[in-house]
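We modelled the chain as a single entity of 402 amino acids. Its sequence is:
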Amino acid sequence: MAAVFENKNILCGISGSIAAYKVCDWVRSLQKEGAEVKAVMTRAATKFVSPLTFAALTGNPVYGSMFAVRDEESIPHITLARESDLILVAPATAQTIARLAHGFADDLLAAIVLASEAKIVVCPAMNCKMYLHAATQENIRKLKEYGYLVLEPECGMMACGEEGPGRLPEWVQVRDALIKALSAQELAGKTVLVTAGPTEEPLDPVRFLGNRSSGKMGYAMAAVARQHGARVILISGPTRLAPPPGVELIDVRTAEQMYQEVVDRFDAADIIVKAAAVSDFRPTRMSATKIKKNGENMGLELARNRDILQTLGAMKQQKPTPPLLIGFAAESDNLLAYGREKLEKKNLDFIAINDITAADSGFGVDTNRVILLDRKGGQTNLPLLSKEETARAIWSRVIGKG
């Protein structure tokens, strides 16, 4: 499977901010993921980072002058505008934002943006008072009206010593925005409900029954759905993961809490993805104090938790236009037989099965090897992929079948 930026032509427009050095790592990351990257620098940008740096990182010439002669038959601002699938303006200073907002073409970067039909992503970075000034805010509003994607800057301490909004966003947010800009918005207007992570069933104030789920697969499913335009509600058990940009996060701890949150939102969802590893059992009682070691053995009485996925499958039958229901199954043997049985028994549209006995698949690792079954008898065997790539492949199949 091709990387998300494979064969994409991305133009990085760098303007004169101290934050320009951060874009060096962004360029390297884009190239590692298969993008063809070229850089355009304003004259002010070259005072902060040498053009030679970006030339070395991209393997391409760095463009700066409107009238630099490299190819006599080439018009730089037209050629670069036509070649680009996406233009990333970062850091975008107040001056550059003003140029773009008012349609000026007095430097190469502004002229390329004006001549391009590519997706434009703008990352403001400047002094907080400059960013909050009414003129800058009005210019940003105009860029959004033009259809440009303008990322919110982060708050924090500036190089100038002032504190407030104006810091360049982190790469994880920028990367997500670039993927969204390049992705078809097949899920626009849809609400996707995703469950992720483990649940914890308390024994006493310090102990609980749980499992080794990291939540990575569910979070990846949520992130990719958002990148394809969906409104995403992520109901998550305890994890160490940061929520994907743009999703609504609902934190829960126990299976019963997850059950209630999912059932309460059933009617709002167009697609439900049950990727959480929900505890099948809970202690019949929780001790109000820490359980002490008394004697050699201790019995633990357990009660069965309600099966969320089976409940959703039953609820589907009561709706004239039910949501699409996608389940996940972590199995240790007889993957296809158990997967097909769960698909039918729980009234699912798709089920993704992974072998938890494999060292490179399942809980706690960054990769997965999934078999995707659908209710019409279809079977897709995915190769070993990152969990993000696995999520992308599953959504591609689901969108295509849906």
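As a brief sanity check on the tokenised model: Residues 387-401 form the longest helix (15 residues). Residues 9-182 form a domain with the Rossmann fold fold (CATH 3.40.50.1950).
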